[in-house]
Here is the input.
Amino acid sequence: MGPFARTSSLLAVVFACMVPAAHAEEPPAIVGRLDNFVGQVSLLPAGSETWIAASLNRPISLGDRIWVPQGGRAEILAGPDAVRIGPGSELGVLDLQERDMQLSLSQGTVELRVRDFGSQQRVEVDTPNLALQLEGAGDARLDVDPFADTTTVTLHDGQAAVFGDTAAPASVQMGQQVRFAGRDLTVIAAENDPALDAFDHWVVERNRREDASITARYVSPWVTGYEGLDDWGTWQDNTAFGAVWFPRVPAGWVPYRDGHWAWIAPWGWTWIADEPWGFAPFHYGRWAWIAGSWAWVPGPVAVRPVYAPALVAFIGGGSFTADMVNASAAVAWFPLAPGQLYRPPYAYTPTYLVAVNRCTAIRREDEDFNVRRTVTPGRLPPQSLTVVPRDVFVRGQPVRRATRPLPLARMQSLSVADGPHVQPRTESVLGQARPVPAPRGGPQRPVLATRQPAAPPVLPYTPGPGAGAAPRLWPGHAVRVVPHPSEGYRPQRRVAPPTTVMPLERAGMVPPTPRDRALGQPGLSQPRPSGMRPYAPYPSPRPAPSATPQPGLYAPHPGFSPPPPDQSHRQQGQRPLPRSVVEPPRTLMPLERAGMLPPPQGVPRSIERPGGARLDHGSPPEHPAEGRRATTNERGSDRPSTASPLQRANMAP
Here is the structure.
């Protein structure tokens, strides 16, 4: 049996002794981490009305809103997916789960990279103009201009569908950049292979760093924040635990001591570390004491992990009360070791309990801890127990400078509790974060979505001394749900740039030029750096002259009102033009007006010859009766005409 083999019989006994805290839905298995940011990035946590300065290790979850000011940028990692936010952007998290990601972008720029896309996964970005859904793994960028009422979609990789308020959904292909106006998917600009800007180059660099991560060899891609470990420690192979990571920390360092606690719904009390790498090792795996040093044990790579707010065990019971201070005045915890079961202090189901403990093996030597819920102080690593006053815990104050010693030598056994059993206050949501003014962005408008967002989490609230009213839940932006097709529907309409008729085309002197011919000329596309897949040219949606036109393919310019349908084709025996192709007005050239050039083929027009005879160029000439020579009067004059050009043009008597 390998180092992570499970003892199924003992596991069954452990689970049989445990009753779920409540019959409720499972909390999300994934969260986001603010991995990198530049500028005064701010955050509005779910359940709060106060904007705070963003920090690296605070989890990003359902109901949070992020603001990136002008000149700034930010990166959010959520398992294998990455969300990059550009300057002047406001992003909201409408839903974030293992199979569902729904974001709202009211203004600014966001780049979404999805590397792992399951069969039932849904990834959606909602803007005031449209809702975009990725149809597989890909890389999409959205730019929202609230003042111009436009959303620009750039698809670097994959395929996506866009949904409007009233129009039928449209498909955006890899390599396209399309700008939509209003809410009915009106296309006002489109091109292939757009040039990269400064934000794109930053995204390419972040992609390279993510793809070259050393830690990715040892952890599951669904471990949020593993990219931050490369520069802060070393990996080693251990015979008992497999691959383990040793952080570069000073002597006396202990897990879950440099940081503070905060209440983050729906999990509750969550550890927010001060270490720049302190996200993945405190929410996944276990900590082991190996040869006098702390090492993080992430668990098997093939197992998809589940996020936990803090993998610690809290101390409670009579021993803690008698030998320490009053139990109501202190909170104590220690990091879980490999083999020790994590029991969430929040509501969970039996299925969730199994999933959140998949990263560790259940061992017989931990039966006292897992079943009897006790621990012997002598079996704990040195200085692993952290004790702070309850007020420090509830207010989210720094832990290290408030730590109290606990005389473990006099204790024979410690009772283990699932949680601290402390109710949060208003300051528990914000913790040590610095309040900042609310951002002043563009006009607030509702976003379009294909489904209702997930319900915001509920925040239990107990007012403390001097506290005000209970904070309201995150209201978010208003969401307008658009009609969504049936499951499995794939939009058939491809967006295309609006047709622009050149002056020579309007004059009938040159045939129309395919709109994307210039895009295929060499030298017009910028070489794309490594780290981003090159764009693939998409087939031109313009039909060949002999092909049947596709209705609804070309979008007219906003405000264009088409003329009433022409019924002349019914008399001339010609096929009508499709409604989606607008016939431009013809302008006769000077030589054509003078009768020195024949009109274009297919355009009937009659002119007068000198002498009063009319000839219809739109129909074949009338032949005399067969077997009889035409007379001079029927043919007209046999002599060449001596009329001047002005006479032939009816411009002179």
